Amino acid sequence: MEILKRLFIAGFIFISLTSVAQDNNQIILKAFSQSLTYEYKGDYTNAIKEIVTIYTADSYEQNVRLGWLNYEAGKFTESVSYYEKALALKPMSEEAHLGIVYPASAIGNWDQVLAHYTKILANNPANTTVNYKVGLIYYERKDYTKAYSYFEKVVNLYPFGYDALLMYAWTNFKLNKTREAKVLFNKVLMLSPNDTSALEGLGLLK
Questions:
Q1: Is the dihedral of CA 38, 43, 44, 48 positive or negative?
Q2: pLDDT along the chain (206 residues), means of 10
Q3: CA distances in angstroms from 53 to 48, 72, 150, 202, listed in the order given
Q4: What CATH number does domain 144-206 carry, 3.40.50.300, 1.25.40.10, 3.30.200.20, 3.40.80.10?
Q5: Domain ranges in the chain?
Q6: Are 84 and 71 in contact (CB under 8 A)?
Q7: Which of 52, 101, 53 has the alpha carbon at shortest distance from 80?
């Protein structure tokens, strides 16, 4: 009888915990649903409040959501903080690394942007979007040698893609690789026949 009693108690506890977990899950789903509704209306204040009401620091999803909403609300410092919490929970998350780039770039912290892009490339060296954006950062810093290596990687993977092809052409131009630059600018014109930037580059090569 004692064994049956213990089994009954254990079963009762299990059912109770399951019921509580299901109820909690429904509360979380409702909060996310309402938050999305507010976001679609552009009401970021209430969209944030919906998640804050059910917030737990160990939830990756909630931290990412709050990171994005605070960015949309123009609260860049708060956004960075939530994304950092998300990364502490899932350090390899490209999603969170890319997310934190938005508020970091908005406040002009390009070193932080570059640091997160570098972490993404450490795990995924062939990420063309990130390689291209890192190339842009180095190009703007006039570090054309570094910019070249990133644009080259993108062009090797996507030989006929407009954005990287154009920047690769300009980087070659800046490095005085005039023959290569001319070939690349002409390839850009195959994609965009009257491209102002490509035509400008070719004009400077004459």
A1: negative
A2: 49 43 80 96 97 96 98 97 97 96 96 97 96 98 98 97 98 98 98 97 94
A3: 9, 19, 43, 58
A4: 1.25.40.10
A5: 144-206
A6: no
A7: 101
Q: Measured between alpha carbons, how far is 56 from 141 in angstroms, rounded to an integer? A: 40
Name the amino acid, one letter, at 194. Answer: N
Q: For residues 153 and 131, is the Cβ–Cβ distance under 8 A?
A: yes
Q: At what angle do helices 2-40 and 60-72 cross, to 10 degrees?
A: 20
**pTM above the 0.85 mark?**
no
